[in-house]
Specification:
Distance between the termini: 10 Å
Structural class: alpha/beta
Largest sheet: 8 strands, parallel, barrel
CATH topology of the largest domain: TIM Barrel
CATH class of the largest domain: Alpha Beta
Shape: globular
Strand content: 5-15%
Strand order of the largest sheet: 1-2-3-5-6-7-8-10
Helix content: 40-55%
CATH superfamily of the largest domain: Luciferase-like domain
Number of domains: 2
Radius of gyration: 20 Å
CATH architecture of the largest domain: Alpha-Beta Barrel
């Protein structure tokens, strides 16, 4: 199992320590660094910036929001960065949610599975550069001939020859149909709440995708890149403090990320067996009582989602994650020393 450094997306200001983290990851044997985007900083620019400071680590997006750019634009970003980094790009993408897609990007959210399939197909056509790129799908028709068209759209192929025709495409997916499609059409999967206890829930969804005639991969060569926080603590009291400190983030995703009737993260927690509390957490969170919502988050959920313990316990738990099929563990770290310590422990 490889290690990845999850830099995420920016808050109100650019993070001050990412240079330190990236340097430590490069020097300590991490396989990749990953950036994300929400509705602030973008995912590609930091990779271009930090890619200049590195030579070995792969540069991954976790994730690029598909509705923020046309499929050909995403392909242009990927092929450009792939050249600049000498073939180190991993293109991770996802559909986001209706509040962001329609509220921020001004695009329709409907039929996310069909849209994902078209985006992936168009990007692969661009990267193969076998001829002018066309698409007969309803979501991203190329050339465009719909309302407002002047009728002069011309099928094109990229001027720049892509360095690699097979840049790895990983997809963020949460529900059964989306996970199955990811196993069918992608090279890897970026689950948001993957844990050793939930691995059995995802297995049949993945197997359904691998069994389809058009599947690109098998379980043997398919990547699963799971994100978690890994922290070494001295004793049970320190572990409890870490768990308590992470509960507000779990409450945010369970109760406040997405519309009340379309919170895909809440649905994952429901499937994981926490439906007895998810509705109440959401109710309290949306009412503004975040402290009460946080108080309902059980210790066992946080402990399952992350890896927190003594050095020996962390090593054992990491092996358990690897045993479920995780190929890359994407870690959030607070300092270069923490990156180096984890790399040494898990080498």
């Amino acid at each position: 199992m490889k290690l990845g450094l999850q830099l995420g997306y920016w808050g109100a200001q650019p993070p001050a320590n990412h240079a330190e983290l990236v340097q430590a990851a490069e020097e300590s044997g991490f396989d990749a660094i990953f950036t994300a985007e929400a509705w602030g900083s973008d995912a590609f620019t930091p990779l271009a910036w930090w890619g200049r400071e590195t030579e070995r680590v792969r540069l991954g997006t976790s994730i690029v929001q598909m509705s923020g750019r046309s499929p050909t634009s995403i392909a242009m970003h990927a092929l450009t960065l792939d050249h600049l980094s000498h073939g180190r790009v991993v293109l991770g993408m996802g559909v986001s949610g209706p509040q962001v897609v329609e509220g921020w990007y001004g695009q329709p959210f409907g039929k996310p599975l069909a849209r994902t399939r078209e985006v992936v197909d168009i990007i692969r056509k661009v990267l193969r550069r076998e001829g002018p790129v066309t698409n007969d799908g309803t979501h991203y028709p190329l050339p465009f001939t719909g309302e407002g068209s002047v009728g002069l759209g011309k099928p094109l192929k990229p001027i720049t020859h892509p360095l690699r025709a097979d840049i790895p495409i990983w997809l963020g997916a949460e529900g059964p149909k989306n996970v199955a499609q990811t196993a069918e059409i992608a090279d890897g999967w970026i689950p948001i709440f993957y844990t050793p206890k939930s691995a059995g829930m995802y297995a049949p969804w993945l197997d359904e995708g691998f069994a389809r005639p058009s599947a690109r991969r098998t379980r043997a060569d398919f990547e699963i890149a799971a994100t978690c926080h890994v922290q070494i603590v001295a004793d049970a009291d320190e572990k409890q403090a870490v768990i308590d400190g992470m509960k507000p983030v779990v409450a945010l995703y369970m109760g406040g990320m997405g519309a009340k009737d379309q919170n895909f993260h809440k649905q994952v927690f429901d499937r994981m067996g926490y439906e007895a509390i998810t509705g109440r957490v959401q109710e309290l969170f949306l009412a503004g009582d975040r402290d009460a919502a946080t108080a309902l988050i059980p210790d066992e959920l946080v402990d399952d989602m992350h890896i927190i313990g003594t050095a020996a316990e962390v090593k054992d738990t990491v092996q358990a994650w690897e045993g479920t099929g995780v190929t890359t563990l994407m870690l959030s770290c607070g300092s270069g020393d923490e990156v180096r310590r984890l790399a040494e422990l898990l080498a």
